[in-house]
Design a protein that fits this description.
2 domains, 374 residues, Aminopeptidase, 16 strands, elongated, Alpha-Beta Plaits, alpha/beta, binds nickel (II) ion
Protein backbone atom coordinates (compact mmCIF):
# COMPACT_ATOMS: atom_id res chain seq x y z
CA UNK A 1 0.00 0.00 0.00
CA UNK A 2 1.48 3.33 -1.04
CA UNK A 3 0.82 6.66 0.69
CA UNK A 4 -2.45 7.25 -1.20
CA UNK A 5 -3.79 3.78 -0.44
CA UNK A 6 -2.85 4.06 3.23
CA UNK A 7 -4.58 7.44 3.48
CA UNK A 8 -7.74 6.11 1.79
CA UNK A 9 -7.83 3.08 4.11
CA UNK A 10 -7.31 5.29 7.19
CA UNK A 11 -10.07 7.70 6.16
CA UNK A 12 -12.45 4.79 5.63
CA UNK A 13 -11.72 3.44 9.12
CA UNK A 14 -12.13 6.94 10.52
CA UNK A 15 -15.57 7.31 8.90
CA UNK A 16 -16.73 3.98 10.32
CA UNK A 17 -15.47 3.72 13.92
CA UNK A 18 -16.45 0.68 16.01
CA UNK A 19 -16.38 0.30 19.79
CA UNK A 20 -14.38 -2.35 21.65
CA UNK A 21 -15.34 -5.97 20.84
CA UNK A 22 -17.52 -4.69 17.97
CA UNK A 23 -14.70 -4.10 15.46
CA UNK A 24 -16.28 -6.54 12.98
CA UNK A 25 -16.04 -4.40 9.84
CA UNK A 26 -12.61 -3.07 10.83
CA UNK A 27 -11.33 -6.64 11.23
CA UNK A 28 -12.96 -7.72 7.96
CA UNK A 29 -11.39 -4.84 5.99
CA UNK A 30 -7.94 -5.57 7.41
CA UNK A 31 -8.26 -9.32 6.77
CA UNK A 32 -9.39 -8.66 3.18
CA UNK A 33 -6.30 -6.54 2.41
CA UNK A 34 -3.96 -9.03 4.06
CA UNK A 35 -5.43 -12.09 2.36
CA UNK A 36 -5.42 -10.33 -1.02
CA UNK A 37 -1.63 -10.23 -0.62
CA UNK A 38 -1.36 -13.82 0.57
CA UNK A 39 -0.74 -13.04 4.25
CA UNK A 40 -1.76 -15.77 6.71
CA UNK A 41 -4.42 -14.41 9.12
CA UNK A 42 -5.09 -16.14 12.43
CA UNK A 43 -8.39 -15.07 14.07
CA UNK A 44 -8.09 -13.84 17.66
CA UNK A 45 -9.68 -15.70 20.58
CA UNK A 46 -12.26 -12.86 20.73
CA UNK A 47 -15.10 -12.05 18.34
CA UNK A 48 -12.93 -9.44 16.62
CA UNK A 49 -9.23 -8.91 15.91
CA UNK A 50 -6.64 -11.10 14.22
CA UNK A 51 -2.93 -11.74 13.90
CA UNK A 52 -1.09 -11.61 10.58
CA UNK A 53 1.83 -14.04 10.38
CA UNK A 54 4.67 -13.29 7.98
CA UNK A 55 7.13 -16.13 7.77
CA UNK A 56 10.61 -15.28 6.50
CA UNK A 57 12.61 -17.39 4.10
CA UNK A 58 15.14 -18.60 6.71
CA UNK A 59 14.99 -19.49 10.41
CA UNK A 60 15.44 -16.60 12.83
CA UNK A 61 13.84 -14.71 15.68
CA UNK A 62 10.14 -13.97 16.15
CA UNK A 63 9.09 -10.36 16.58
CA UNK A 64 5.59 -8.96 17.10
CA UNK A 65 4.07 -5.62 16.15
CA UNK A 66 0.84 -4.65 17.88
CA UNK A 67 -1.95 -2.22 17.09
CA UNK A 68 -5.33 -1.61 18.67
CA UNK A 69 -8.54 -1.20 16.64
CA UNK A 70 -11.34 0.29 18.72
CA UNK A 71 -12.96 3.72 18.86
CA UNK A 72 -14.44 5.72 21.75
CA UNK A 73 -17.99 6.77 22.71
CA UNK A 74 -17.25 10.40 21.75
CA UNK A 75 -19.24 12.67 19.40
CA UNK A 76 -16.76 13.91 16.79
CA UNK A 77 -16.27 17.68 16.43
CA UNK A 78 -13.34 17.88 14.02
CA UNK A 79 -15.22 19.12 10.96
CA UNK A 80 -13.04 16.81 8.81
CA UNK A 81 -14.34 15.79 5.38
CA UNK A 82 -13.89 12.16 6.53
CA UNK A 83 -15.44 12.64 9.99
CA UNK A 84 -17.22 9.77 11.73
CA UNK A 85 -20.54 8.74 10.19
CA UNK A 86 -21.56 6.95 13.39
CA UNK A 87 -23.30 9.25 15.88
CA UNK A 88 -21.60 9.27 19.28
CA UNK A 89 -18.67 7.11 18.20
CA UNK A 90 -15.28 8.43 17.11
CA UNK A 91 -11.69 7.37 16.57
CA UNK A 92 -10.59 9.97 19.12
CA UNK A 93 -7.45 8.06 20.13
CA UNK A 94 -6.01 7.38 16.66
CA UNK A 95 -6.49 3.61 16.69
CA UNK A 96 -7.56 3.95 13.03
CA UNK A 97 -4.12 5.47 12.38
CA UNK A 98 -2.39 2.67 14.32
CA UNK A 99 -4.28 -0.09 12.48
CA UNK A 100 -3.51 1.44 9.07
CA UNK A 101 0.20 1.80 9.88
CA UNK A 102 0.47 -1.82 11.05
CA UNK A 103 -1.48 -3.05 8.01
CA UNK A 104 0.98 -1.13 5.83
CA UNK A 105 3.89 -2.63 7.78
CA UNK A 106 2.49 -6.18 7.42
CA UNK A 107 2.17 -5.78 3.65
CA UNK A 108 5.69 -4.34 3.38
CA UNK A 109 7.04 -7.32 5.33
CA UNK A 110 5.10 -9.75 3.17
CA UNK A 111 6.57 -8.17 0.03
CA UNK A 112 10.08 -8.40 1.49
CA UNK A 113 9.79 -11.87 3.05
CA UNK A 114 12.53 -13.30 0.80
CA UNK A 115 14.97 -11.12 2.71
CA UNK A 116 13.38 -11.78 6.11
CA UNK A 117 14.76 -14.29 8.58
CA UNK A 118 12.48 -15.63 11.27
CA UNK A 119 8.91 -14.51 11.64
CA UNK A 120 6.90 -11.35 12.27
CA UNK A 121 3.47 -11.51 13.89
CA UNK A 122 1.35 -8.39 13.46
CA UNK A 123 -1.30 -8.27 16.18
CA UNK A 124 -4.55 -6.42 15.43
CA UNK A 125 -5.94 -6.23 18.96
CA UNK A 126 -9.53 -5.21 19.72
CA UNK A 127 -10.94 -3.53 22.84
CA UNK A 128 -7.96 -1.55 24.14
CA UNK A 129 -10.11 1.27 25.47
CA UNK A 130 -12.08 -1.12 27.67
CA UNK A 131 -8.92 -3.01 28.76
CA UNK A 132 -10.27 -6.35 27.56
CA UNK A 133 -8.47 -7.11 24.32
CA UNK A 134 -4.87 -7.18 25.50
CA UNK A 135 -5.41 -9.59 28.38
CA UNK A 136 -7.30 -12.04 26.16
CA UNK A 137 -4.96 -11.91 23.15
CA UNK A 138 -1.71 -11.95 25.13
CA UNK A 139 -2.73 -15.38 26.48
CA UNK A 140 -2.90 -16.89 22.98
CA UNK A 141 -0.43 -19.70 22.28
CA UNK A 142 0.54 -17.94 19.07
CA UNK A 143 2.77 -15.54 21.03
CA UNK A 144 4.76 -18.12 23.00
CA UNK A 145 7.79 -17.73 20.72
CA UNK A 146 7.76 -13.91 20.43
CA UNK A 147 11.04 -12.40 21.66
CA UNK A 148 10.17 -8.70 21.36
CA UNK A 149 6.91 -6.75 21.14
CA UNK A 150 6.51 -3.28 19.58
CA UNK A 151 3.41 -1.11 19.77
CA UNK A 152 2.43 2.21 18.21
CA UNK A 153 0.58 5.15 19.69
CA UNK A 154 -0.25 8.54 18.18
CA UNK A 155 1.06 11.55 20.06
CA UNK A 156 -0.48 14.94 19.43
CA UNK A 157 2.18 17.17 21.06
CA UNK A 158 4.76 15.93 18.49
CA UNK A 159 4.65 17.03 14.87
CA UNK A 160 4.67 14.62 11.95
CA UNK A 161 8.20 13.30 11.50
CA UNK A 162 8.91 12.95 15.23
CA UNK A 163 8.95 9.65 17.13
CA UNK A 164 8.67 9.53 20.92
CA UNK A 165 10.94 6.82 22.33
CA UNK A 166 11.48 6.79 26.06
CA UNK A 167 12.99 4.10 28.28
CA UNK A 168 11.29 2.90 31.43
CA UNK A 169 7.66 3.50 32.46
CA UNK A 170 5.56 5.24 29.80
CA UNK A 171 2.06 4.30 30.98
CA UNK A 172 0.71 3.64 34.47
CA UNK A 173 -1.36 0.80 35.92
CA UNK A 174 -4.90 2.24 35.67
CA UNK A 175 -6.78 0.49 38.49
CA UNK A 176 -10.24 1.52 39.64
CA UNK A 177 -12.28 1.13 42.78
CA UNK A 178 -15.76 1.77 44.11
CA UNK A 179 -17.18 2.15 47.59
CA UNK A 180 -20.72 1.95 48.89
CA UNK A 181 -21.54 2.94 52.47
CA UNK A 182 -24.86 1.59 53.69
CA UNK A 183 -26.57 3.15 56.69
CA UNK A 184 -30.24 3.82 57.41
CA UNK A 185 -32.32 6.46 55.67
CA UNK A 186 -34.52 8.84 57.62
CA UNK A 187 -36.15 12.28 57.63
CA UNK A 188 -33.50 15.00 57.34
CA UNK A 189 -35.18 16.76 60.26
CA UNK A 190 -34.66 13.69 62.46
CA UNK A 191 -31.12 12.53 61.69
CA UNK A 192 -30.84 10.66 65.01
CA UNK A 193 -33.44 8.14 63.77
CA UNK A 194 -31.18 6.92 60.94
CA UNK A 195 -27.51 6.32 60.13
CA UNK A 196 -26.34 8.97 57.64
CA UNK A 197 -23.75 7.69 55.11
CA UNK A 198 -22.97 11.17 53.68
CA UNK A 199 -20.59 12.56 56.35
CA UNK A 200 -18.76 9.22 56.28
CA UNK A 201 -18.34 9.43 52.49
CA UNK A 202 -17.05 13.01 52.83
CA UNK A 203 -14.54 11.78 55.41
CA UNK A 204 -13.43 8.98 53.07
CA UNK A 205 -12.92 11.36 50.13
CA UNK A 206 -10.81 13.72 52.24
CA UNK A 207 -8.88 10.93 53.93
CA UNK A 208 -7.99 9.44 50.53
CA UNK A 209 -6.22 12.72 49.65
CA UNK A 210 -3.61 11.98 52.31
CA UNK A 211 -2.39 8.85 50.50
CA UNK A 212 -0.31 10.69 47.88
CA UNK A 213 0.67 13.59 50.15
CA UNK A 214 1.54 11.65 53.33
CA UNK A 215 2.39 8.06 52.52
CA UNK A 216 4.09 7.89 49.11
CA UNK A 217 7.68 8.89 48.39
CA UNK A 218 7.44 12.39 46.83
CA UNK A 219 9.70 11.23 43.99
CA UNK A 220 7.29 8.50 42.97
CA UNK A 221 4.46 9.37 40.57
CA UNK A 222 1.07 8.31 41.93
CA UNK A 223 -2.51 9.44 41.30
CA UNK A 224 -5.55 8.81 43.49
CA UNK A 225 -8.66 10.42 42.00
CA UNK A 226 -12.22 10.06 43.24
CA UNK A 227 -14.17 11.07 40.17
CA UNK A 228 -17.77 10.18 40.99
CA UNK A 229 -19.68 10.61 44.24
CA UNK A 230 -23.41 10.26 44.64
CA UNK A 231 -25.93 10.08 47.46
CA UNK A 232 -29.46 11.16 48.13
CA UNK A 233 -32.46 12.31 46.12
CA UNK A 234 -34.01 15.26 47.98
CA UNK A 235 -33.13 18.08 50.41
CA UNK A 236 -35.18 16.65 53.25
CA UNK A 237 -34.36 12.93 53.01
CA UNK A 238 -31.26 11.32 54.47
CA UNK A 239 -30.41 8.48 52.09
CA UNK A 240 -29.64 4.92 53.09
CA UNK A 241 -26.52 4.68 50.91
CA UNK A 242 -23.68 6.78 49.49
CA UNK A 243 -21.50 5.78 46.57
CA UNK A 244 -18.07 6.84 45.29
CA UNK A 245 -15.68 5.58 42.61
CA UNK A 246 -12.32 6.55 41.29
CA UNK A 247 -8.97 5.48 39.94
CA UNK A 248 -5.49 4.78 41.24
CA UNK A 249 -2.51 5.17 38.89
CA UNK A 250 0.86 3.73 39.86
CA UNK A 251 4.09 2.59 38.26
CA UNK A 252 5.37 0.23 40.93
CA UNK A 253 3.85 -3.02 42.20
CA UNK A 254 4.48 -2.44 45.93
CA UNK A 255 2.86 1.00 45.90
CA UNK A 256 -0.06 -0.35 43.92
CA UNK A 257 -0.78 -3.02 46.55
CA UNK A 258 -0.16 -0.62 49.41
CA UNK A 259 -2.64 1.99 48.12
CA UNK A 260 -5.29 -0.62 47.48
CA UNK A 261 -4.89 -1.86 51.08
CA UNK A 262 -4.95 1.66 52.52
CA UNK A 263 -8.16 2.58 50.70
CA UNK A 264 -9.83 -0.62 51.80
CA UNK A 265 -8.72 -0.08 55.40
CA UNK A 266 -9.91 3.55 55.40
CA UNK A 267 -13.29 2.48 54.07
CA UNK A 268 -13.69 -0.24 56.70
CA UNK A 269 -12.63 1.92 59.64
CA UNK A 270 -14.61 5.01 58.63
CA UNK A 271 -17.66 2.77 58.22
CA UNK A 272 -17.07 1.28 61.64
CA UNK A 273 -16.65 4.71 63.26
CA UNK A 274 -19.97 5.83 61.75
CA UNK A 275 -21.88 2.59 62.31
CA UNK A 276 -22.20 1.82 58.58
CA UNK A 277 -21.52 -1.13 56.32
CA UNK A 278 -18.74 -0.69 53.73
CA UNK A 279 -18.61 -2.48 50.39
CA UNK A 280 -15.21 -1.74 48.83
CA UNK A 281 -14.43 -3.12 45.37
CA UNK A 282 -11.10 -3.02 43.57
CA UNK A 283 -10.93 -3.60 39.81
CA UNK A 284 -7.32 -4.10 38.69
CA UNK A 285 -6.39 -2.61 35.32
CA UNK A 286 -3.45 -3.66 33.15
CA UNK A 287 0.12 -3.39 34.45
CA UNK A 288 2.19 -0.27 33.72
CA UNK A 289 3.88 -0.19 30.30
CA UNK A 290 7.65 -0.29 30.84
CA UNK A 291 9.81 0.21 27.77
CA UNK A 292 12.96 -1.90 27.62
CA UNK A 293 16.05 0.40 27.62
CA UNK A 294 18.18 -1.66 25.20
CA UNK A 295 15.34 -2.04 22.72
CA UNK A 296 14.62 1.71 23.01
CA UNK A 297 18.19 2.44 21.96
CA UNK A 298 17.81 0.14 18.94
CA UNK A 299 14.51 1.83 17.97
CA UNK A 300 15.96 5.33 18.37
CA UNK A 301 19.03 4.61 16.27
CA UNK A 302 16.92 3.14 13.45
CA UNK A 303 14.52 6.11 13.68
CA UNK A 304 17.38 8.60 13.32
CA UNK A 305 18.86 6.62 10.46
CA UNK A 306 15.47 6.85 8.71
CA UNK A 307 15.39 10.62 9.17
CA UNK A 308 12.96 10.90 12.09
CA UNK A 309 13.43 13.40 14.85
CA UNK A 310 13.55 11.38 18.09
CA UNK A 311 12.18 12.92 21.29
CA UNK A 312 11.16 11.78 24.75
CA UNK A 313 7.45 12.10 25.34
CA UNK A 314 6.15 13.64 28.54
CA UNK A 315 5.58 11.28 31.46
CA UNK A 316 1.92 10.38 31.74
CA UNK A 317 -0.33 8.38 34.04
CA UNK A 318 -2.72 7.04 31.40
CA UNK A 319 -3.01 3.30 30.90
CA UNK A 320 -2.51 0.87 27.97
CA UNK A 321 -3.13 -2.86 27.86
CA UNK A 322 -0.04 -3.40 25.65
CA UNK A 323 1.53 -4.26 29.03
CA UNK A 324 -0.29 -7.62 28.87
CA UNK A 325 2.07 -8.62 26.04
CA UNK A 326 5.11 -7.31 27.92
CA UNK A 327 4.52 -9.98 30.59
CA UNK A 328 5.70 -12.44 27.93
CA UNK A 329 8.73 -10.61 26.52
CA UNK A 330 10.29 -7.13 26.53
CA UNK A 331 9.22 -4.44 24.13
CA UNK A 332 8.66 -0.77 23.38
CA UNK A 333 5.58 1.41 22.98
CA UNK A 334 6.58 4.01 20.38
CA UNK A 335 4.78 7.34 20.11
CA UNK A 336 4.28 8.64 16.57
CA UNK A 337 3.96 12.39 16.21
CA UNK A 338 0.71 13.17 14.40
CA UNK A 339 0.31 16.89 15.18
CA UNK A 340 -3.13 18.46 15.60
CA UNK A 341 -4.53 20.88 18.14
CA UNK A 342 -6.32 18.58 20.58
CA UNK A 343 -5.10 15.70 22.74
CA UNK A 344 -6.20 12.06 22.49
CA UNK A 345 -9.81 11.37 23.56
CA UNK A 346 -10.86 14.98 22.72
CA UNK A 347 -13.76 15.40 20.22
CA UNK A 348 -11.44 17.57 18.12
CA UNK A 349 -8.57 15.03 18.02
CA UNK A 350 -7.02 14.55 14.56
CA UNK A 351 -4.07 12.48 13.32
CA UNK A 352 -2.12 13.71 10.27
CA UNK A 353 -2.63 11.22 7.40
CA UNK A 354 0.68 12.38 5.93
CA UNK A 355 2.43 10.59 8.81
CA UNK A 356 1.08 7.15 7.79
CA UNK A 357 3.54 6.08 5.13
CA UNK A 358 6.74 6.81 7.00
CA UNK A 359 5.38 5.17 10.13
CA UNK A 360 4.53 2.01 8.14
CA UNK A 361 8.04 2.02 6.65
CA UNK A 362 9.55 2.43 10.12
CA UNK A 363 7.66 -0.43 11.79
CA UNK A 364 8.28 -2.76 8.83
CA UNK A 365 11.99 -2.06 8.93
CA UNK A 366 12.15 -2.28 12.71
CA UNK A 367 10.54 -5.74 12.67
CA UNK A 368 12.77 -6.85 9.82
CA UNK A 369 15.99 -5.73 11.50
CA UNK A 370 15.02 -7.20 14.86
CA UNK A 371 13.96 -10.53 13.33
CA UNK A 372 16.98 -10.70 11.06
CA UNK A 373 17.87 -10.16 7.42
CA UNK A 374 19.19 -12.86 5.09
NI1 LIG B 1 -5.26 4.81 22.59
Amino acid sequence: MNAQELIAFFMDLHRHPELGLHEFETTRKIREKLEAHGVLCVPSSLATGLTAVIQGSAPGRTIALRTDLDALPVQEETGLSYASEVPGVMHACGHDFHATVMLGAALRLQAARDRLKGCVKVIFQPAEEISEGGAAMAREDLFGDVEEFYAIHTYQPFETGTLGIKEGPVMAAPDSFSLTFTGKGTHAGQPHKGVDPIPAMCAFVLEAQTICSRTVNPFEPVVVSIAHVSAGTAWNVIPGTAFAEGTVRTLCRETRTDIRNRLERMAAHIAEAHGLQADFRWRPGPDPVINDPDLCRACASLAREMGFHVARQEDCMLGEDFSEFLRRAPGVLIRVGTGGQFPNHHPGFTADPQALERAADFFARLAMERAGLT
